[in-house]
Amino acid sequence: MFIEVKVPVLAESIADATLLEWRKKAGEPVSRGENLIDLETDKVTLEVVAPESGVLKEIKKNTGDTVVSNEVLAILDTNATGAVAAASAAAAPAPKAVLQKAAAPPAAKLSPAARKLVDEKSLSPAAIPASGKEGRITKTDVIEHLSRAAPAAAAAPVAADRAEQRVAMTRLRKRAAERLLQAQHDNALLTTFNEVNMQPVMELRNRYKDAFEKTHGVKLGFMSFFARAVVEALKKFPIINASVDGDDVLYHNYFDLGIAVSAPRGLVVPVIRDADRISFADFEKRLRDLSEKARNGQLAIEDLTGGTFTITNGGVFGSLLSTPIVNPPQSAILGMHKIHERPVAENGQVVVRPMMYLAVSYDHRIIDGREAVQFLVAIKEHLEYPALALLEI
Questions:
Q1: Helix (H, G, I), strand (E, B) or coil at 358
Q2: What residues contact 237, with CB distance under 8 A and at least 6 apart?
Q3: Of 256, 271, 270, 272, nearest to 308 (Cα)?
Q4: Could you tell me the domains of the chain?
Q5: What do you get for the CA distance between the two ends of the chain, in Å?
Q6: Of 255, 259, 223, which is closest to residue 242 (Cα–Cα)?
Q7: Which residues are catalytic, by number?
Q8: Closest Cα to residue 130, out of 138, 121, 122?
Q9: What is the mean pLDDT of the chain?
Q10: Average pLDDT over residues 311-325
């Protein structure tokens, strides 16, 4: 029986995808669930697997082609499975009674980005130490392996005299560029700033982080404090959580927070849904899992769609102050920055405190400056007085 191998149904926000490289050639046998080719979208890399075992009879789309949902990529002949198996059995040498062949080691697990780099560099996955979940090799593992194996080769591009290299932008980078330009063109963007004394949060975290990790099996980070402060502030100023839909303002009665995460392919924004209904521990676990999936190239489209408000933390890279750009169709975004000890005035005296600058960029079409400033002040108050969230005031 002939089966069509099709492009998976893409999300509404993804118009098309690009074929990276076929793992099989026409005429080769394939097993059910075996990856045939990777699809690169502007958000994630997807694997297209064989729906059944058989022989890849015909490839209809080539590497580099642009495809859409449900488009036929190849034809699979499932009736050829028996013939292939019989031919393989006939060609296999008879086992010897005395010598026993050792079982082959299990095939290495690679993320799509890592598999692409391994193929390009003709590397052996067995020689690359894996740091991903369940022994999966990530793109970072491959890069580190290349650096260890050939440090001179890795440094050669840096040392080359006036060398130039032209590299095509990935779909993710091109789409990010389009969205950033669209956001600045379509929205009336403004940014307001404030500063927050992080000492109360740092003291609370340091006091309970060991017990928190022992109880919940996850580390207590700063992001969960910010997420809780943001949710409480959004409840007070629902227009910040709204979006423009044509000539209407669409209010969201739920709080799906996008958290910007750095991944090998670029910055991605996975979404933690119903952030107002989950505990600190659940938030940290979801953030940990999404961050790991981002590093391994395993984020699904569902992980990246939606979101009513975004938090981005440039402080992890050392940024002291920045103006984040709104992630459409959202209307506002919070920028966190580096915690830096500075002298500040308290009760008429100069003291040194761990301070952080906060920035909220917002769409002035529906959000007034007064609301944006008060929203940022509410976040500041909930961070400097964590008890406010417990008392719901």
A1: strand
A2: 371, 374, 375, 378
A3: 256
A4: 2-88+106-156 (2.40.50.100), 172-391 (3.30.559.10)
A5: 66
A6: 255
A7: 364, 368
A8: 138
A9: 85
A10: 94
